[in-house]
């Protein structure tokens, strides 16, 4: 934007901007990087030391002015001087740390900046908190770097791959602040890079970031410094997340602090006051403030909070700050913390519970107590979406105990973590070791089911069968219902993968009955998979949505991406593509935020399949490309199989049925070679490809397998697909017509509109070849309407081609009501939302995992549909 403004000066258009960002965000670097050849550059930097020295800023710029008693005349004189300075060549005025500039200089420069539109002048202010004097000037926020950009910057500065765990720790600590990230990377020791020493816990003490923080802190008055430290200690990343404003007021009253000092602390950028909460923005800044404070100051801050809090109304925070004052083992205080941790866990505040369990462990005297509380902390950290923190806590447990059950709990946690962010093979081994050690039947059953999930993720069906047999031996008659459900889940899914669909039905139905009586999100996900396998997509979706809701209410964020996989898959089976798109996109966002790359790959593959089933080649390819690296490097069989299915659909769109057949025949997906469940689900596309290749015998064999599944489950949606496949294979026209009509009736009964339209298209093609064009046209008109509603442009083109072949011209648009955003497809609506927020086409593409060419294509269609010609008109249309 700024470089564009510099280029516009050549057209006689001037402009002004205010860069807004926190400590270390790169404001000065942006000013340094402006490309202004041919410009005269005037630059000034605000300073607290000269803030009360009138005209100091203008003196730095070299503008000759004298103070006058008339403010307007003074500002007008500055404007005239700037205009004169731009007579010979364009002028660029840069003012860094403008919020520290003396008041007369800032007011005059702001006055000038608002009046340069017709001058060859660009003015850029850089500030943390824009003062009122800069009102009305275009603001350009400099937000923290997104995690992928932060990781890229770190790798570039380290000069090598620092390893997944260390990189994730540095990204988290750096908080997206470029200066902090650069200095963290450059300060790494060889031992830290080799994983032999703990990662840093704060930016380096001798770095510029810490110096900038210390300078801002030192410039504050004593009361403002006290407020900053209170906020930094209360939201230290381990304890309560923020200091509420009411507590800050009570602390101020009890300690005799001037509450106005809190606003001073806010203006300097060291604290943020939002929604009645006071916190320090970002872990890098918080860690630096804590490191800069003396032990005495930290203790005093904790004491002030303890004195101000009422233990009856905020026992957690009161206990937490008392515990922070303890210098060694304190068993009684440790037990108090244990009680408040249990309460936080019951309330679904997993991260607060994790912090309290960990601090309780530190204050406990006995090693077994410490180990048990650290395991509880690790469990809550994992459920709360902090996988790296959970691993750190588990590592602290191992030296404290050799008890099999404790080691089993540690393995259960590590295996559950590996299932989401490591190779599935590692997860399987760790989880099986956990099942062997655990005393709790429920925990052991969970470990076995997760090991089975990991083998499915790897595409290793033989390993799954072996684990299912182990679960069968594990079961006893007096097990609780949860354990029986786990074993029944194995029985049903193993039978399904072996093609014994009738045998799968009784145990899977028992899973559904058990899940109905237990409010366990994990069990709800198992039941959703059971319902999906049984062909009840509505129930599968409802169960998965219930798992998402329950996990969310209980703060169990780690389970959300897993549950959302089954929400999205059920919605696809129901042909609710817009819902599936939303669920899978939510899954990508959530899994990315939680550090679960395996779940990201699952959802990207589902997104690719969704686009491919609509015939959207470019979108499907872009999403496949986004998932490819993790699928290959981690040995992810299930997303690999889904990707093969999606790729085969793309091959059919491209009229390459032989390629589609080859993909679906092997469906390579990791250690097991073929994912049996997804191979059966993809049978309709395999049969379509085989028929196009003239391989009718091959198609018939595949259809026999699909019929076994569809017939055993009674799924109306799958029976419709079966009838369509039989029609494609029918040897005589009468049989084909009967099958097509049956398929259409079943599609309508199941509500699967997109597949109905495809069947109508195939049926119309059959009718046209049988010289029955009138009947063909009836099918095609209905199919075309459905394809257009689903934004399935490839299929719509095919329907139009068939219509023309029947002798009918393409239908003309007859809409008379105005088109609104509600008439856009879900993906078009999301693109419009991002464009309205100012995202470029490439940024939109990155957010939606599609190519920028696909964004271009969608925008052209959006412009045409809404009757606008540009992004500017689009934004105006939305207003």
From TrEMBL:
Pfam families: GerE (PF00196). Coiled coil: none annotated. The keyword Coiled coil does not apply. The keyword DNA-binding applies. Keywords: DNA-binding. SUPFAM superfamilies: C-terminal effector domain of the bipartite response regulators (SSF46894), P-loop containing nucleoside triphosphate hydrolases (SSF52540). One of its GO terms (molecular function) is DNA binding. Residues 817-879 form the HTH luxR-type domain. GO terms for biological process: regulation of DNA-templated transcription. This is Regulatory LuxR family protein.
């Amino acid at each position: 934007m700024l470089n564009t403004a510099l280029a516009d000066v050549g057209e006689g258009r001037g402009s002004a901007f205010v860069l807004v960002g926190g400590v270390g965000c790169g404001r000065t670097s942006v000013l340094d990087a402006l490309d202004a050849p041919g410009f005269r550059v005037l630059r000034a930097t605000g300073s607290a030391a000269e803030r009360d020295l009138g005209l100091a800023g203008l003196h730095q710029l070299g503008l000759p002015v004298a103070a006058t008693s008339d403010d307007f005349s003074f500002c007008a004189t500055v404007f005239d001087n700037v205009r004169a300075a731009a007579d010979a060549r364009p002028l660029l005025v840069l003012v860094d740390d403008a919020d520290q500039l003396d008041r007369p200089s800032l007011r005059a420069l702001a006055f000038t900046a608002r009046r340069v539109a017709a001058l060859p002048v660009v003015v850029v202010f850089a500030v943390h908190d824009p003062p009122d004097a800069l009102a009305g000037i275009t603001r350009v926020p400099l937000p923290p770097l997104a995690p992928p950009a932060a990781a890229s910057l770190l790798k570039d500065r380290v000069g090598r791959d620092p390893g997944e765990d260390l990189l994730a720790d540095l990204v988290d600590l750096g908080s997206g602040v470029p200066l902090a990230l650069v200095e963290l990377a450059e300060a790494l020791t060889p031992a830290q890079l080799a994983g032999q020493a703990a990662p840093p816990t704060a930016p380096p003490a001798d770095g510029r970031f810490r110096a900038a923080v210390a300078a801002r802190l030192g410039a504050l008055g004593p009361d403002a410094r006290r407020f900053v430290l209170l906020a930094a200690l209360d939201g230290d990343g381990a304890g309560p997340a923020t200091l509420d404003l009411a507590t800050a007021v009570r602390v101020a009253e009890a300690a005799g602090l001037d509450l106005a000092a809190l606003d001073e602390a806010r203006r300097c950028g060291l604290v943020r006051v939002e929604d009645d909460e006071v916190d320090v923005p970002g872990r890098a800044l918080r860690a630096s403030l804590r490191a800069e404070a003396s032990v005495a100051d930290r203790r005093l801050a904790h004491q002030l909070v303890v004195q101000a809090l009422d233990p009856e109304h905020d026992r957690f925070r009161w206990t937490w700050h008392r515990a922070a004052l303890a210098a060694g083992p304190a068993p009684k205080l440790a037990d108090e913390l244990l009680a408040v941790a249990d309460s936080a866990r019951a309330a679904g505040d997993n991260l607060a519970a994790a912090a309290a369990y960990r601090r309780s462990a530190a204050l406990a005297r006995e090693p077994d107590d410490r180990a048990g509380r650290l395991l509880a902390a690790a469990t809550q950290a994992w459920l709360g979406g902090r996988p790296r923190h959970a691993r750190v806590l588990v590592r602290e447990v191992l030296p404290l105990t050799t008890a099999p059950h404790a080691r089993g709990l540690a393995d259960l946690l590590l295996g559950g973590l590996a299932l989401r962010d490591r190779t599935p093979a590692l997860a399987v081994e760790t989880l099986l070791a956990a099942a062997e050690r655990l005393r709790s039947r429920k925990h052991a059953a969970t470990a076995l089911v997760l090991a089975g999930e990991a083998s499915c993720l790897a595409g290793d069906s033989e390993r799954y069968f072996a684990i299912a047999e182990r679960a069968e031996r594990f079961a006893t008659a007096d097990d609780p219902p949860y354990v029986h459900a786990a074993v029944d889940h194995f029985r049903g899914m193993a039978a399904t993968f072996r093609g014994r669909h009738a045998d799968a039905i009784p145990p899977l139905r028992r899973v559904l009955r058990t899940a109905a009586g237990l409010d366990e999100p994990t069990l709800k996900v198992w039941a959703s998979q059971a319902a999906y396998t049984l062909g009840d997509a509505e129930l599968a979706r409802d169960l998965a949505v219930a798992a998402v809701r329950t996990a969310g209410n209980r703060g169990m964020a780690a389970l959300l991406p897993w549950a959302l996989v089954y929400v999205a898959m059920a919605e696809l089976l129901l042909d609710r593509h817009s819902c599936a798109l939303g669920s899978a996109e939510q899954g990508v966002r959530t899994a990315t935020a939680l550090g679960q790359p395996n779940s990201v790959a699952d959802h990207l593959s589902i997104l690719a399949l969704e686009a491919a089933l609509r015939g959207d080649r470019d979108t499907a390819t872009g999403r496949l490309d986004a998932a490819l690296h993790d699928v290959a490097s981690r040995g992810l069989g299930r997303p690999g199989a889904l990707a093969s299915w999606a790729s085969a659909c793309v091959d059919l769109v491209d009229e390459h049925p032989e390629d589609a057949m080859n993909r679906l025949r092997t469906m390579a997906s990791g250690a097991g070679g073929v994912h049996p469940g997804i191979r059966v689900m993809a049978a309709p596309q395999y049969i379509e490809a085989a028929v196009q290749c003239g391989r009718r015998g091959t198609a018939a064999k595949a259809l026999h397998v699909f019929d076994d599944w569809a017939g055993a489950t009674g799924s109306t949606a799958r029976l419709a697909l079966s009838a369509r496949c039989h029609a494609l294979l029918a040897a005589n026209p009468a049989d084909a017509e009967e099958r097509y009509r049956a398929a259409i009736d079943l599609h309508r009964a199941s509500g699967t509109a997109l597949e109905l339209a495809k069947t109508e298209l195939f049926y119309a093609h059959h009718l046209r070849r049988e010289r029955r064009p009138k009947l063909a046209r009836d099918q095609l008109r209905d199919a075309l309407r459905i394809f257009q509603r689903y934004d399935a442009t490839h299929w719509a083109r095919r329907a139009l081609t068939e219509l023309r072949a029947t002798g009918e011209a393409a239908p003309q648009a007859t809409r008379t009501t105005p088109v609104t955003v509600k008439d856009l497809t879900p993906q078009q609506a999301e693109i419009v939302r991002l464009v309205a927020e100012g995202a470029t086409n490439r940024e939109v593409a990155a957010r939606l995992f599609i190519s920028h060419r696909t964004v271009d294509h969608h925008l052209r269609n959006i412009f045409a549909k809404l009757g606008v010609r540009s992004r500017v008109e689009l934004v105006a249309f939305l207003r």
